[in-house]
Amino acid sequence: MIDETEASLRAHQIIDTEGIKLIDNLIAIGNALSTRTDLQDILNLILLKAREITSSDAGSFYLIDHESSTAAICFEVSQNYSQPQRSLVDFAVPMTKETLVGYVAITGEMLNIPNVYNIPEDAPYHHHQTFDEDISYRACSVVVLPMKNAEGIVFGVMQLINRKLSPDIILTPDNAQELTQPYSIWEEKILRSLVSQATLFVEHYRLLNPNI
């Protein structure tokens, strides 16, 4: 039987290991920001590290397109551990408060939802279950954060989906509820920092590439 002292030591070892992983991931992002110039390359890296830190199964970066006749939120990069061949690039979400991403893009407020299938009916936003059905997936826990420029204007959004109990789990519609958990306040803080890094890079990239 494990005594309290040994249990405490094991807990501290886990915390120390997670702390080292976090520092390594942040250093990797910092190094990339100083050496890489490709927008999708950087966003893919930040998204990957955000998923690794939070054990998220999937995630996306969206950028708002104001050039089209109707403003839309476009997938810039997307990743899905359980469906690695799935690509949502070139897919757009309507600029409306009815979607989770649209709500965050319009209001500038972060959303942290333990289970998107349990969103109250009177909430202004909803999860469109038909999207899950179309790709044979099941979203449960979701966190959505705005990307704001120096003036506070939202020009993009980062979304992470399904914080897993273990990073190596392959999720299916049948096991997703059992094998995922909500995003914690600690993860919110880390993700805010990563979104800030992504925001600074996108702003700098657009200054150097004004026609894109």
How many helices?
A: 6
Distance between the termini: 62 Å
CATH superfamily: GAF domain
- Secondary-structure class: alpha+beta
Relative helix content? 40-55%
List keywords for this structure.
single chain; 212 residues; alpha+beta; Beta-Lactamase; seven-stranded antiparallel β-sheet; 6 helices; 42% helix
What features would you describe in this structure?
The protein is an alpha+beta fold. The chain has a single domain (38-208), classed as 2-Layer Sandwich (Beta-Lactamase), CATH 3.30.450.40. The chain has helices spanning 4-35, 39-54, 100-107, 129-134, 176-179, 185-208, and strands at residues 56-65, 72-80, 92-94, 111-113, 142-148, 154-164, 180-181. α1 packs antiparallel against α2 and α2 packs antiparallel against α6 (185-208).
Note the topology:
Elements: H1 4-35, H2 39-54, E1 56-65, E2 72-80, E3 92-94, H3 100-107, E4 111-113, H4 129-134, E5 142-148, E6 154-164, H5 176-179, E7 180-181, H6 185-208
Antiparallel strand pairs: 1-2, 1-6, 2-3, 4-5, 5-6, 6-7
